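Let us walk through a complete example step by step. Step one is to write down the protein sequence. Step two is to encode the small molecule, glutathione, as a SMILES string so that its atoms and bonds are unambiguous. Step three, shown after the inputs, is the structure prediction itself.
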Amino acid sequence: MNLIFAPASPFARKVRVLILELGLQDRVRLQDPGAITPVSNNAVLNAVNPLGMLPALELDNGECLYDSPVICEYLNHVANGPFFPAEADPRFRALGLQALADGILDLSVALRYEAAMRPQELQWPTWVDHQNEKIERGLDALETRCSQFEASPLIGEITVACTLGYRDFRFPDSDWRPGRPALTQWFSQIMQRDSLASTVPT
Ligand SMILES: N[C@@H](CCC(=O)N[C@@H](CS)C(=O)NCC(=O)O)C(=O)O
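Step three: the predicted structure of the complex.
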């Protein structure tokens, strides 16, 4: 298999963490196609994902999977892993937590593009404020749910860790920790896992 990724992409990091957790390193090659933005046109990526977004996973039979939740579930299936429970209650709790953390990531990545790429005169402060409010509410929801996080992480917890890591990486001036002591403590603990410690974006 071939994973098209970018070192700074938090969605690709989710997949890389799963690969390490599942011991699939020898079965998945990593391919960095170069800079990807919403206004770039990358032929390598467009050939496998018409949406032009990464991560994308090329399978050995030539088919391609995206986006990160689909890729993660596929890899978990291949390795018969524990990250997507089969039973309904834990499954939908895990998927729901993944959706919440992915949602915070979507908003954060959009804000990053806005700040880093959109010409200053086209920026829209009202939009920025509303996306930041959504992120704050999402982080508060994580703080509230933190006491129910699984001791042995599922896809939800892995996604939360990658989301908080992306906040630290791209938004160091907007620290999510103040007022969120449970999440702060949980994050410092989960970051001791090799899969997360070895994929911190730089
Ligand atoms: N829902 C997607 C989101 C992927 C995503 O936003 N990827 C970013 C890189 S972190 C991207 O490809 N951006 C290029 C674009 O927006 O065109 C997933 O979970 O994989």
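Step four is interpretation. Residues 9, 11, 36-38, 52-55, 67-68, 102, 109 surround glutathione (CB under 6 Å).
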